[in-house]
Amino acid sequence: MKALIYHGPGRRTWEDAPDPQVIEPTDAIVRVDAVTICGTDLHILKGDVPTVEPGRILGHEAVGTVTATGGAVTTVKRGDRVLVSCITACGRCRYCRTGTYGQCLGGGGWILGHRIDGTQAEHVRVPFADTSTHLLPDGVTDEAALMLADILPTSYEVGVLNGRVRPGDTVVVVGAGPIGLAAITTARLFTPSYIIAVDPAASRLEAAKRLGADLLVGAGDDAAAAVSELTGGLGADVAIEAVGIPETFELCTRLVRPGGHVANVGVHGAPATLHLEDLWIRNLTITTGLVDTSSTPALLDMIAAGRLDPTTFITHRYELHDMDAAYQTFSDPAGTGALKVVLSRHADD
């Protein structure tokens, strides 16, 4: 098969790789029908995730068709159409028993495209298939389901739920990339009074406006002044960090009101300063997190019922063998306007 192989910081190739095989009785082999690229993949290529070793097949999001299963798999079978979650869950350890699958102690967590070969390939081995895949209803398209592999549950759980967004809140989302836009979308489920989007890219702010942001703060604007004016000097109830650099995290701590929440979603590759000399007196709650995907079934139900349409995040479409072109597009959002790219298997493959 063909797969996207990581060869160290800054180096990747779409090349031949061995077909995956069932290794454990809980495994499934899935033919990849649709896959996407995550900002985390770009962090890996920058060298921000040193636990990813050269030779690894990247990717942790896919929709596909089951082609083989181990003898212990009971909930999916050959021919089933499934969502492959970015988080793998053993289903048995202490964390999995509480729905905290991202911290799985039994061989799961974020392993696809990280500690084992991932989904940016023609086929993928999915460990613990019973608890790490989701059967897809006929009415849910591959593209819509693909947005549930990572960005929608990540923004919802790590941003909106961790940030304790409530009706009537003022929510500021710093970073209007795919995760930030998904945070805007899912924050609206809780009917906040205002959602403020902060991003230097005009195209992303336009997308934020289309998805429900009430106030846009762009390049050259004073985010703190804009939030202060909107809230009568109080500050935002919730600030969601969706970039992953020190400046945006520190900005969130300045934009939030005393007693508010800062929910960090971005993947950080460098230290950020926690200004406790200013923050100790402000009663802030700061949360971090890796997505658990415990919300995926509920989000899938909302898509099936027509309450959510995550395909609005998709800006570019490619065939699977166009992986290099898709990476070039996704890695230059300022020049291409890319939000999410989708690569699909050719119908004849």
Automatic annotation (TrEMBL):
Gene3D superfamilies the record matches: Medium-chain alcohol dehydrogenases, catalytic domain, NAD(P)-binding Rossmann-like Domain
UniProt-recorded Gene Ontology molecular function terms: oxidoreductase activity; zinc ion binding
Domain of life of the native organism: Bacteria
Protein keywords: Metal-binding, Oxidoreductase, Zinc
PROSITE patterns: ADH_ZINC
Keyword Coiled coil: no
Cofactor(s) recorded in Swiss-Prot or TrEMBL: Zn(2+)
Coiled-coil region list: none
Domain Enoyl reductase (ER), residue spans: 10-343
Pfam families reported in the protein's UniProt record: ADH_N, ADH_zinc_N
PANTHER family tied to this protein: NADP-DEPENDENT ISOPROPANOL DEHYDROGENASE (PTHR42813:SF4), ZINC-TYPE ALCOHOL DEHYDROGENASE-LIKE (PTHR42813)
UniProt similarity note: Belongs to the zinc-containing alcohol dehydrogenase family.
UniProt-recorded name of the protein: Zinc-dependent alcohol dehydrogenase family protein
